[in-house]
Amino acid sequence: MKKIILTILFLLTLTQAKEIQVYESLTCGCCDLWADYMKAKGYEVSVHKTNDFLKIKEKMGIKDEYQSCHTGVIEGYAIEGHVPESAIAWLLENKPKDVIGISAPGMPQGSPGMEQGYNEKYPVILMKKDGSYELYGYFVGDKKL
Question: What is the β-pairing status of strands 19-24 and 121-128?
Fold first, then answer.
């Protein structure tokens, strides 16, 4: 009986949605589209619309050149901008120690939440604690090249 209960508890932890807090401006529509994309991928998303959304970027240590229109926070990592879910899943699975988060700098056309118009090739980077970055990969849409 104990074995069955432990198995059920283990399976329940596997099916729980990962929770992400998203901070965005009061007027950004593409941020809401990215939040919807993450919900469709099985995440529990809490959106915080505020005029002070830049404060979370400062608090998380996100350099200006890595910034985008919104910031997510999940398991202590910053998710900056329109990052594809597969890159976030990699981050959460691997949990690199020298990284504060992952970013799709700017607002790349065709990235999740920015599907209006054409699909450009864009970088997704790992933001490091020392302020440098490492290229995670290039994407078109939400597909890694």
Answer: unpaired
41: containing domain: 18-144
Phi and psi (nearest 5°) for 29?
-85, -35
Is 62 buried (19+), middle (13-18) or exposed (0-12) by CB count in 10 A? buried
pLDDT of amino acid 6: 42
- The answer as to whether 6 is a domain residue is no
Nearest-Å Rg of the Cα atoms of the chain is 16
Give the pLDDT confidence of 89-109 residue by residue, as tens digits: 999 999 999 999 999 999 999
Q: Above 70 in pLDDT, residue 10? A: no
Q: Give the residue carrying structure tokens 């799709």.
A: 104
Per-residue pLDDT, averaged over 106-115, amounts to 96
State the Cα–Cα distance between residues 61 and 9, nearest whole angstrom. Answer: 36
Give a yes or no: residue 126 inside a domain.
yes
Q: Where are the alpha helices (DSSP H) in 41-138?
A: 53-60, 85-94
